[in-house]
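Example 3.2
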Amino acid sequence: MDTSDITCATVTVEAGIAEVTLAATGKANRMGPDYWAQMPTLFSRLDAEEAVRVVLLTGAGEHFSFGLDLASMAAELAPILQADAGAKARQQLLATIRRLQEANTAVARCRKPVIAAISGWCIGGGVDLITACDVRLASSDAKFSVREVKLAMVADVGTLARLPAIVGQGMARELALTGDDVDAARALKLGLVNDVFASKAELLTAARAMAARMAKNSPLVLAGIKEVMNAQSEAAARESLATVALWNAAFLPSKDLLEAIGAFMEKREPTFTGE
């Protein structure tokens, strides 16, 4: 499978397993323009490639992903996130949100099982991504956070649409409304991850072994299982994603958002007013 044009990740295929490693960008695999533009193409190719039966997704380096790369996305997002943005800017924001959503929906839609192997931090967009996967495994140093609420944002590219089906409504709401950090042990208790391993090396060994066990099964049946199990969950996800896209197009540009960005840059606690 040719992935020479893909820069957001490296891909190797062996014995029916495609290992997709998020490319290190900036501090910790932040999701910049290449990620959002290329993930639908990459997972469409993986879906169509007969040599691939299972996908193993991980991150390069110490961390899985710190989520959206605000620095590299600033040129695109800044003009449409002003608190006084007009109707045209909000239409552009709606189109942008829908486009970004497709990056993770492509993972959920893939007919091949997708196993996420998570070490280090998995924040914001990282959680959006892993909720689109079929199985999540973690190393003991993994930490998770639905961080958007602390940035005056409603998470809009997958977490709110898919997390409740994984951990239940109560826990999903707690995580989304607090933005609290969750360590690997608690993630296992919540059902966010299926298992935890002592180190990243042990995690990858276990993830590869699971992928190999899956790859031995009929590819037709693997696709059928995903089709059946996605029928209900992804129908609900589509409705949720459509709702949050409209909500954020209307309300994401706010004084609170600008305050959150300013506080982040100045390394201080934000003061939100609901404006």
